[in-house]
Amino acid sequence: xxxxxxxxxxxxxxxxxxxxxxxxxxxxxxxxxxxxxxxxxxxxxxxxxxxxxxxxxxxxxxxxxxxxxxxxxxxxxxxxxxxxxxxxxxxxxxxxxxxxxxxxxxxxxxxxxxxxxxxxxxxxxxxxxxxxxxxxxxxxxxxxxxxxxxxxxxxxxxxxxxxxxxxxxxxxxxxxxxxxxxxxxxxxxxxxxxxxxxxxxxxxxxxxxxxxxxxxxxxxxxxxxxxxxxxxxxxxxxxxxxxxxxxxxxxxxxxxxxxxxxxxxxxxxxxxxxxxxxx
Length: 279
Ligand SMILES: [Zn+2]
Hints:
Elements: E1 4-7, E2 11-25, H1 26-29, H2 35-42, E3 49-50, E4 55-67, E5 70-74, H3 97-101, E6 108-112, H4 118-121, E7 125-128, E8 131-134, E9 140-144, H5 145-152, H6 157-162, H7 164-168, E10 172-175, E11 185-189, E12 198-202, E13 209-211, H8 220-223, H9 235-252, E14 255-257, E15 269-272, E16 275-278
Parallel strand pairs: 5-6, 6-9, 9-10, 13-14
Antiparallel strand pairs: 1-2, 2-4, 3-4, 4-5, 7-8, 11-12, 12-13, 15-16
The structure holds zinc ion.
Residues 117, 119-120, 214, 259-260 line the site of zinc ion (ZN).
């Protein structure tokens, strides 16, 4: 698992892998896709495409921003020790992730969640005996109010073990759409994958960069933006959000850092027929 660092001009962005690759059958993640689409995607993100097995390979990672002297995490990966019996590689893990993070947990001042899926919240807590306690006890943890409400109403296990302990410790901030948790950082609503998914717009960068969460899971959705993942709550809305964001990225030069890309973290997209390619 290799980590990467980008200098965004006044802001440093690191991607620290938590599981890489995370492999799924193409036809499972993208039921409406074709093997041909995966072949075309391989030209854009080859390590994300196992053509022989017809599988997609994702990277699950945590982003670390250094901005104005603060350390900010965006999303929190899978975590260790969590009960995830439906996903063997996520179940009761023990990894060296916190060592690879390279900064003391106490130095993290902000943790932003794009959405609350199991692969985006896990490191927010760690096991202490029978309890889950905050991994980053000096950080405010911030998520859209509507995203939290959606999952809390279902008692979704990753929210119960990775978010509720933050709330009980008084470290959780539930915010409205478009909230700016820090000057130079702003949540940007990207609904569809989840009802209140939000990207994080790095306004302080030399050129605007959007941490775009799961608007695109894979380069296959550049080739075929209409293809929706099996994990999206609202396929219609997910498709509309992706089309609008890709058009903006191509026309206005908004660079995208998607949550699960492998070969290249920063995507500058250009139109290519009915789809998109990387510049
Ligand atoms: Zn994800």
